Structures
1.
Amino acid sequence: MHTQDREKRTYPFPEFPNGWYVLANSSDINVGDVKSYHYFGKDIVIYRSSNLAVHIVDAYCPHLGAHLGKGGTVVGNNLRCPFHHWQFDESGKCVDIPYSEPQPKACLKHWAAIERNGQIITYFSTDGSAPHCEVPEVNELQGDKFPGWSQSYFSKFEYTAHVQEVVENIVDLGHFIPIHHVEEVPHIDEMTFSGPRATLRYSTKNKVLGKIFKAMLHFEYYGPTYTVVKVKTMTDIVLIASMAPTANGQLRHRFHFRMKNMIPLLNPILLRIMAKQIEHDFMGDLPIWEHKIYREHPILCKGEGAIMKMRNWFKQFYSSETPPTKNAIPLKEVS
Ligand code: FES
Ligand SMILES: [Fe+2]
């Protein structure tokens, strides 16, 4: 079947909800690094100045359009363009031109940038609105300041989906047996919504290597794209789950894991095994997301009410001025 003959995947809301998006790990950007990324269909650059601050800026120089990630350098706290060596300060203002007066009109766009829980995060909104909540500092992820916990384990992978489908999936109880192979349909013990925050608790029973393990999961949502998950199973695991759109409907998903120490020398291996298991479970959904359409008015059965509650909560993250998503998240080819 030719691509143009296929169903189109459209959504009655915009492609990007307003929220906190993790773009990189803190350890990816050392002092003096200037690195190129592509998010929200835009080229951006992330750099760390001498005072340790991280900055996220548009990739193209306001002068004659050179890509700042291709040869741009950090000079003190400024970013210097590779083409004519104009320098931009931490507010984006042009502060130095080697052969002329600084041009105040030449301003480099800075994106919101914070560093928290070992990651670099921006706030993206389609209407320029202010952040709807703060990103918390999670004690268990603060390293030596919180003893008894392992080192961090980070992972990332990509897939095609709309952010809302990923969040909605967590309360879609009927898919847990067919897709995630749990032993019984989970029961939601708690689900609360309060402005941009939401909380969800449920437990599952999973079979790993022939043995059944019970896991209690506690999700804390800070807007649509930044979630702190606390898992109680053989030990305690804390993770940040986040996703950020790159281009053509792709999401870059990131996990940051730590676990309560179990056996000192084996902790890194045990964490890796458990993290891989969580990732593996998560990835069960990918083939469904990559091929599914969005049903605005689904036919649901008894016990599936949480899906619509989650959808209602999600509405607040879309700017009413931003048009709905048409064909931006292509369906994967069915071979
Ligand atoms: S293009 Fe950047 S300084 Fe000229
Ligand atoms: Fe799932």
2.
Amino acid sequence: MAATKTRSRGGAKNARPASRTIDDLLADFGTTMPRKEAPAPTPPAEKLFPHTVKSSGVRRMGHGWSPTMPPLAGYQMTSEETPVLWPLISGDGLPPWGAEMGYDVLSGGKFYCDPMGWVLDDSIPVTNPNIFIFGKPGRGKSATVKAFMIRMIKFGYRSLVLGDVKDEYEDLANFLGVTPFRIGPGLPGRINPLDLGPLGADWEKQTAEEQEKRATVIFNRWLMLIRGLVASQGVVFSPTEERVINKVLRHLTGWSAGASRLKPVTIPLVWAALDSPTKDLVTDCRYESEQAFFNGTRPLRDALGALCEGSLQGMFDTESTFEPDWRKPIQTLSLRSLHETGNKVAVGIALMCLNSWGQGMREAASAGDRRIVLRDEAWLQTRLSLEAVEALDANLRLSRTEGDIQLVTYHKPSDPLSAGDQGSQAAQIAKDLLNLSDVRILMGQDESVADELGRLMGLSEMQQGVITNWAMQEKGRALWMVGDQRYKVQTLLTPLEKRLTYTNEAIDPGV
Ligand SMILES: Nc1ncnc2c1ncn2[C@@H]1O[C@H](COP(=O)(O)OP(=O)(O)O)[C@@H](O)[C@H]1O
Ligand SMILES: [Mg+2]
């Protein structure tokens, strides 16, 4: 782009003799040129633009007339440099694959979301299909997720909602002919977070090597969960506790005794094993006597005991009564009745249990089994403790990646940072957590969050403005960050989807 300057030569023009035309020149040689017939004038009514308007506008009140044109700045730069000044001018756009979400407001074209397809396409800078969605409550995070789930069904994707704290996925599940699974105080549903999951199936038929591999995966998941659960009760989980829990789990399943089948384990069983330890366990954990074992493991026992009492009693302490039907388009685990008790710690712990259980359920899946695994309002879990952040991090990191799209929704980026002091280890892990997703959808936010967003996501001021201004004007508007590309997208809902995603009943009784 370059500005060109033209110089007026008006002064010299008058001094020159009248110039000769081509006709004058040819007449000197006694010849003439054939003339092209002038086209017949079009009647004014048929003209497409009967009046032309000069660039300075129409000289009339209210018609935008300007006596002089504003001076235009000229720049010269390469096409590589232009995105610095115009960061939101996107390139070719994304290919028309996957869920049709709405439109890209800069190009006017349709906007499609296909995280797995993006990963497979080398020209799109995305290396994992996970998506983090941020937005102020009510801006349309859940609605975007629901629309995505519905629209991915035709591409063979099924959804798993790990903890629906407001029961807002129930309408969608019922519409798809699936009965949501409810867990809560007094409800009959049970989930055992220490479920073996599909890795425990056909155990006897596996080779010793395969059994070893599977056992490591299962024990690691359980350890991570128990660590998170214990730490959320304010109990330190040191390498000593880790050793004790590792031993207990291996004893209880029969793994240390070389059992051909792993026995089912529950949290009360782990607690009971600590409360009346066998001699083997005491010596294995290198305690001198039973009394020394009791003294050493008291905080651990008390923390585990608390999980089997109070508001969580009868939810996560026996064998699972829920058998997910993976052929159905959606599986949702509702937690509203627990959420309504107002016990925030209990909700966080319940989400942690469901996340771990869900990870176990996805550790093995048949080829072509594609799933969208959702953790809505994940901050309810991660604000509990550093270990809770680590547990989510491990669930996301270790989940089977081929075929699964992990979706996580948050209010604001600092939600994962709320566990522990800023700048601390928790904040670092939380930042790493964000790096687990190459796709981030930033929906409307208040000004106060803008700086924080900018810092964490590397946004320019203009991009921050998109979130705090443009995205706040309509629901479903968001800045989509796909790798290092940015898109300004408006998600559109069909009338049916608007009904299925409606979440404002409580504050809008008129509808
Ligand atoms: N793109 C959209 N178009 C129209 N309405 C929308 C859109 N996105 C969300 N809504 C409506 O806005 C309300 C709040 O959306 P919701 O997804 O529950 O917000 P969040 O999860 O961010 O708190 C819902 O009633 C939903 O139907
Ligand atoms: Mg929501």
3.
Amino acid sequence: MFSVGVISWRNLCIPRLSQKRFAHDIVITQRTGKPIVKYGAGGRSSVSGHIATVFGCTGFLGRYIVSKLARQGTQVIVPYRDEDSKRHLKVCGDLGQVVPLEFDLRNEKNIEEAVRHSDIVYNLIGRDYETRNFSLEKVHVEGAARIARISRELGVDRFVHVSALNVDKNSPSKFYRSKALGEEAVKKEFPDATIVRPSTIFGQEDRFLTRYAATKYGYIVNGGRTKVRPVHVFDVALALERMQKDESTIGETYELYGPREYHFEQVMDLIDELIDRRRIRFNIPKPIALAFTKAFNLPFLLTVSPEEIEKLYVNDKITPGAKTFEDLGIRPLSLEMNSLGIVRRFRSARAYDQPLGYGRPIEKSKVGKKREIHVEY
Ligand SMILES: NC(=O)c1ccc[n+]([C@@H]2O[C@H](COP(=O)([O-])OP(=O)(O)OC[C@H]3O[C@@H](n4cnc5c(N)ncnc54)[C@H](OP(=O)(O)O)[C@@H]3O)[C@@H](O)[C@H]2O)c1
């Protein structure tokens, strides 16, 4: 009798409850009027109704946004170039929800296939250096414009383009010049595109804290005086995720930067403090740094490129009145409080588990009058 009761309860009540639809399960998109139909209770195994394409998903920021989208039931198309580069993304979502597609940025058919069914396209494609096949213009301007144009032609509802803070057509840095032209080209092809300009991003496996913590000697340029406002990768990914549902972000430009400004040398001091090492620090004059990086800028050496040296001379500058985290309801994480987990692996075995500040005292920063960084733990 009991089992009959259980079966009838399951058969009759649970399926009906879970299949019931409410008015708020259907959203009509503002731009194209396409219906987005939600199904399920929410979360990884439900269906949010959205299909997103994330170009540049195989990079540092890409994996965080793919994970954020897939865990709430969005189907994510992940265009990739190298077979192994997309492997880790498959497990971000439920079975069949993360769909890898091989693509070439120059091949329009590939791009069409990747965006055809999507209602939102994120373009995270970017490169800090030029390669034999791709100049910065080909990646940041031509490639971005091509994806934006095809997305518009195929009726994609939203386009989110990731650029960079400090973009300027007259910047001494080729990277920032090409990113500025890229924004313009994207806006021309897709006028309602949302532009996102993050400052230097830090997080697990970044190319900022990790790179400087890994070096035996600390090298700085510009006397460590360049001003930076590092932003956590969690915050940038959260902002990108919020843009999917928040239609007030259509056509807007967001500058995403951390809560505090630092001189570069202060960041180096912080890294030294966190990894409990006092490294000899060299200030390399610009002509020598450029000559060295030009001579050794070989892909297999994984050195710093000349474009990256130029970037290190540009102070982070906020555009007055630009929208930021506050407009998305996000309070950004600070560098001091969130860096230890990222660089701890560069500590010696002796110091690995020690609390902060147990090691030798760190000398005062040469840039500021007094050390301003205070690490709490
Ligand atoms: N990380 C930062 O500190 C920072 C700061 C400001 C702005 N941004 C911008 O934010 C975006 C994401 O940054 P990220 O740190 O995640 O970059 P990343 O780790 O270097 O990843 C870049 C992505 O772009 C793809 N890509 C590069 N060149 C390509 C090409 N020619 N054809 C097709 N795909 C190409 C890469 O694919 P493969 O894996 O196949 O190479 C990779 O998926 C970029 O646009 C970057 O410029 C980053």
4.
Amino acid sequence: MIAVTGAKGQLGGELCRQWGSEAVGLDLPEFDLLDFDGVRRTLRELRPHAIVHAAAYTAVDKAEEEPDRCFAINATATGVLAELARELNCPLLYVSTDYVFGGEPFRTEPFREEDPASPQGVYATSKYEGELKVLAWEKHYIVRTCGLYGRLGANSPGNFVETMIRLGRSGKSLRVVDDQFCTPSYVVHVARAIRYLLGTSMFGTFHIVNDGFTTWYRFACEIFRLLNWDVEISPITTEEYGAKAPRPRFSVLDTSKYQRFVDAPPLPHWKDALAEYLQEREKLYPRNKVAG
Ligand SMILES: NC(=O)c1ccc[n+]([C@@H]2O[C@H](COP(=O)([O-])OP(=O)(O)OC[C@H]3O[C@@H](n4cnc5c(N)ncnc54)[C@H](OP(=O)(O)O)[C@@H]3O)[C@@H](O)[C@H]2O)c1
């Protein structure tokens, strides 16, 4: 049995759906990462064969206002899970982020797993500290991914695609950042890759994102093109958008280490992945078929 934290979130929820009865999903309120004794108790009782740690404090801008809480969840609690994984002698897979590469704005080459991290801001730094905690247990995987979207979990705050669809419906003109390059990724594809990796026992760090890269503006344009919606949308800069927390200007991840597994599930191009999600979404939320 595999213990999945963040089971009510986007990725944790998708992992639980794909694993079915093989997984036990853990999340708030019964499972609180800030209750370290409770976390220890739960996992010692479960004695899982593996722990997949997809829960996190993910509110990137809010994290700037509550760094202690963000670090406690993303770094300290991850350390508790690493200790438990060692005690239970089971693999631990920690989900991390492209944000660990926030400090190289002039970069044009995708980042490889061994490239030095340069996290900027509270969320990114806390996730990187989580990575360092996980390194203490040899049977670890660190999976860095980016821009997740897919079926929302019961607790998910939303995602970029859903935000664009909501704003697109409002009929207002939109302004979207066009100077941050990365690869938005579909949770169904990321979850398949995570499940595959766990079966390899090839521990280490892996970059798992869809293929190719884009900007948020171009991603938004593709969403509306696929939906066939006529939305007025214009590109803006990161400065014009003015978010509280810093975002990487270029955080494209090189997935060739994962691609070397010849039988690994594919990581389709981001445009194909988006089209797949929008088709799937029509089945999930039929009323949203109505455009505009
Ligand atoms: N979303 C992205 O674009 C993205 C990009 C790169 C990497 N990642 C990483 O990928 C992983 C999954 O992301 P996601 O989009 O699936 O996140 P998500 O939808 O926000 O889900 C995270 C889950 O963790 C739970 N959680 C938060 N604090 C907790 C606590 N103290 N104890 C127990 N559970 C807690 C959340 O519950 P509440 O909602 O109730 O707080 C939520 O159910 C995270 O590790 C994230 O850092 C995400």
